[in-house]
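seq:
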Amino acid sequence: MNLAACRPGLRVYPHIRVGGVASHLAIIWRQLHTNYPGKQRSEKTIVGSRMWPSYSLKSTGLFFLILAVVSALGAFVQIDPVWIYGRYDPAAILPGAQPDWYLGWIEGAMRLFPGINLHLGPYLAPEVFFPAVLLRR
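struct:
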């Protein structure tokens, strides 16, 4: 299914972004960048640091500084310590469905009660039977 056919706004958004970038570049071309007053500066000249070696060395130093911070965070800061919780147990997660307010106590009882199945001959009383039915009485 074509996503752009379902949502017409998806076709317009890239054009708005391209138009915004184009208008920004046109304004900068016309008015130039901000140039604070100082020595050898005017409205027609832009004075700043040279691309090589000053600006490129600053950018390289900043890159390595950020790389060092990110590497230190990756080495020393734990984000999701899954090994603390032990092995994966799909039965330990909460269900996606939420009970209505008047069934909240049954949901709580079913979570607290251990899983016990009662076999009476050919019949099986499932583990939901004890907390939901017997605790109600």
